[in-house]
Every structure is written in C-alpha cells, then in structure tokens.
Amino acid sequence: MKKLKVMSIFGTRPEAIKMAPVILELKKFSEIESIVAVTAQHREMLDQVLRLFDIRPDFDLNIMSEGQTLFDITSRALLGLNKVLTEAKPDVILVHGDTTTTFAGALAAFYHQIEVGHVEAGLRTRNKFSPYPEEMNRRLTGSLADLNFAPTETAKENLLRENVPAEKIFVTGNTVIDALLKTVRADFKFPEEFSRINFDKKIILVTTHRRENLGEPLRQVYKALKALVEEFSDIEIIFPVHKNPKVREVVKEELGGLDRVFLTDPLDYEPFANLMNRATLILSDSGGVQEEAPALGKPVLVLRDTTERPEALAAGTVKLIGTNREKVYNAAKLLLTDAAAYKKMAEARSPYGDGHAAERIVKALLWKHKFSSERPEEFTG
Ligand code: UD1
Ligand code: UDP
User: Fold this and answer.
1) 347 catalytic, yes or no?
2) Overall pTM > 0.85
C-alpha cells in the first residue's frame, strides 16, 4: 500500500512546541511519510524549539522580517507554500492553532485541493477582534479543515454549533500537555546563566506579546509589575521578553535596570517550562501558558479581556484580569498576601490533556485513510 504523505506546516514558537509531539509520533509509523515545512514566521524562537525536539524541516521558507505586517506574512507564506505543495504533493497537511501561518497553510492546501487537518481546532471567543487576528485565523482555518482535532469537549461543541459534522471531529486533548510532560522534571538543573536568580524568593514569571496589547496596555501592565517589585521585597520577577521590537522597547523603558527584575531573551522551552514549575505566580497574555500552568498547579493572571480557553477559568486556576494597571496590581497583590485565595487557584488540574493527544491525532489519520479500522478513543478530560 502506498504510504500516506503527511506534511506538517507551521511557523512560530507555540506551533512548533505543539506540533513537535505530533511529528515525533508520525515518525513511528512505517505507513506514513512525514514531511515538515516551516514558514519561519518566527526565526530564532522557532529554531529554539526545532533544536530541542531535533526536528529538521524538509522545507524552510524563512519569511520573517522585522516588524512584519499581516499582509507580509500571509502573502509570503502563501506564495512559498504554493511551491512547496507543488513539489512535495502531500496527501494531507496538518496546521496548528491560529497564527497567520496556520491560515495561509490551510488556504494553500485548499487551493491545491489537499486535505487539511487542523490541530487545536474549535477554540473561540466569538469576538472577531480579540484576540486579533487569531480568532479569525482559526475560524477561517476551521472552514477549510477536513479533519478537526479538538483539544477539549468544549472545542468540539463550538464546532458542532457551526455545523461541522461530528465524524470530522476528534477530541484529542491538547498536544501542549504531551510536550510539557516530556519536558518538566522535578530534578531539572537550570543552566549556569540562571544562577543569578534567587530561588529563595517567590518567582513571578511574566510573558507578553499579544498584538491587541501592544503599546499602552502593555505599559500599564509593566507599571503594575514595577509597583509590585517595589512593594514586595520577597519576590523576583523573571520576564523572558518576546523578540517583537514593539514589546521590547516598552519593557526596557518601564522595567530596565530594576532590582529583582530579571529580563532575558526568550528562553528555550526546557528551562521555561521548568521555571513555570518553580514559579509562585504567572502573569501572561499567552495562549499556551494558560494551558500549561494549570497542569503544574500554578495560578495564572491572564493579561487579556477575552479567552478562547474557558476550561481553566472554570477550573479556577486562571483569572482574566486584562491590562489595567490597578487591576493587575490588585490581583497579584491578593495572591501574594492571601494564602487562602492563592491555595484556591493553585490546585493542579489538567483540563487540556493527558499527554496522549499526538497518539490520538496520528491514530485518527490512519483510521481516516483506512490504514487501521480503529477510530481513536476520545480524550474525556
Ligand atoms: C505570532 C502570531 C501569534 C502567536 C505568536 C506566538 C500572527 C499574526 N501572530 O505573533 O498568533 O501567538 O506569534 O509568539 O500569526 N521576531 C523576531 N524573532 C523571532 C520571532 C519574532 O525577531 O524569532 C520579531 C520580528 O521583528 C517580527 C515580530 O517579532 O516581525 C513579530 O512577529 P509576528 O510573528 O509577526 O508576531 P507575534 O506577535 O510574534
Ligand atoms: N515559551 C517558551 N519560552 C519563553 C516563553 C514561552 O518556550 O521564553 C513557551 C510556553 O511554554 C508556551 C509557548 O511558548 O508553550 C507559548 O508561546 P507564545 O506565548 O509565544 O504564544 P501563544 O501560546 O500565545 O500563541
């Protein structure tokens, strides 16, 4: 029987982290030829993940430019992927989540009439502009998808509500939990450059990058962080700063040179995930961090007004607080001073996965293409 040619297409750090377990799983099956194409919408941040999981792309479009616009990313990815798909002729492509690479990848495959599998399908805020452009990227990708790998039952329900046929949806859990469980270890030794961090203090880990938060909203968050570090002498803020120059400028202006604020370049996934595991509290506007932290029992204050990840909100391990300076300051202060409020949020729960999402995704592909008669069991939470 002819092998099933599966091409994984991705471009940014979170897509790479969440596709890595799938690529490692695809490799295990002799029935599958696994091909990797990266747009490199991110460069250094993507390469950090490729190195960690030893993934060597077959195609690398290298499209990133400083200050790239959505038009730059979409057009460069689409034109580059046209050539890649023409040459490699995969039977099915996999895209992940909600970036502009995700949408361009699905659209390119559609133009070639190639089957589209959407990993992390069905997340919704129902607010067209929040997060921007991710909400529309995932809805548009959803319209083009033939196979929808929904991480949770809630995501499946979102798709059913949009009239996606049930047989095209597989509830798999989120592959980020597969990646996390492979990476976090109680005995992890931090590299030498972390010796500056005083782990006897309470670690507050921060990440920010959302387009809708750029400028004044992020400045307000950083002012709140500054006030916190001035008030609490027992905390240390660790802030790996996203490569986006629009983020870096404001971080430097507001937090540069402060005592007990450790600003670094983006961290490799291994130390970052293990730092999450050592943190007292996490403040972030990231999607992935909202999924990982609950599995580690770490409270997350989400620096956004909306979330497409309601499961952790329901479980009580994350709180949506937005970017208002007072609100951020008060929410963090409460968790630093009220042990009962902290304990209520800090219980380990894993609504997003059990570490077997990639296995379910690959089983579903084999089943769909009649290499196996067994439809995978669903993740039930
Ligand atoms: C992108 C995704 C967002 C995802 C985020 C994860 C879009 C429109 N946005 O946002 O959904 O949550 O990635 O981090 O798809 N840069 C570098 N080196 C890197 C990465 C970025 O220098 O390795 C700089 C470049 O100047 C680049 C800028 O950051 O132009 C912004 O990158 P971009 O991919 O456009 O947007 P993100 O905010 O990273
Ligand atoms: N992450 C990382 N190094 C860092 C910051 C984050 O490896 O310095 C990981 C984090 O654990 C998560 C992913 O990057 O898995 C989230 O990426 P990001 O916040 O950029 O994107 P989003 O999830 O919001 O799309």
Assistant:
1) no
2) yes
